[in-house]
Amino acid sequence: MNKPRLAWAITGSGHYLKECLDFLLTLDAVDIYISQAGEEVVQMYGVSLATLRARFSVYRDKTASAPPVGLFYKGYYHTLVMAPTTSNTMAKCVLGIADTLVTNLYSQAGKCKVPSIVYPCDIAPEMETTAPGGKVMVYPRAIDLASTASLRQFEYTQVVESVDELINTVQQRLATLP
């Protein structure tokens, strides 16, 4: 087996999606896992799936059992990044629900003691975010903020609050690898 890779999950969140993708495109040895909503949102932000496929292996959420997640058991991945992450995915991860490609990835990464770096779309009671037409204000619900707070307590999980923190955290993680 070659050196372990980074698994990057994209959900249906547009929260600084373009900036996350710009960073992702600077990395090597990455496989992308994209939810059905993620496919829709990526295109809404002007990025084609073909652009991502030109650089990376892309796994789409098309099967019930999500077979590619078994790669965690083979040591194929050193880190999982979920960025940006919807409130729906966050809630499912907190509750241990692994019924989608992305939630199954998070579950299996944890079971294999593979670190996860998560950038949730809901990090403050009032915040600016990006929409296809530009910046907008959003006001996450208490339940969404509670999911973010809960996930911070999970083992092998680091929650980040900005694109800059995401970039720094991923770069620090990569610097620790042989």
Shape: globular
**CATH architecture classification name:** 3-Layer(aba) Sandwich
User: Hey, roughly how much beta strand do the residues contain?
Assistant: 15-25%
For the sheet with most strands, the description reads: 6 strands, parallel
Write up this protein.
This protein is an alpha/beta fold. It has one domain: Rossmann fold, CATH 3.40.50.1950. It contains seven helices and eight strands. The strands form two sheets. A six-stranded parallel β-sheet has the order 3-2-1-4-5-8, sandwiched between helices. Strand 6 and strand 7 (134-138) form a beta hairpin. The longest helix has 13 residues, at 163-175. It is globular and about 45 Å long.
What key attributes describe this structure?
7 helices; Rossmann fold; alpha/beta; single chain; two-stranded antiparallel sheet; globular; six-stranded parallel β-sheet; 8 strands; 178 residues
Short summary of the structure?
The protein has seven helices and eight strands.
Give a topology summary.
Layout: E1 5-10, H1 17-24, E2 30-34, H2 36-44, H3 49-55, E3 57-60, E4 77-85, H4 87-95, H5 101-111, E5 116-120, E6 127-131, E7 134-138, H6 142-151, E8 157-159, H7 163-175
Parallel strand pairs: 1-2, 1-4, 2-3, 4-5, 5-8
Antiparallel strand pairs: 6-7
Helix pairs in contact: 4-5, 4-6
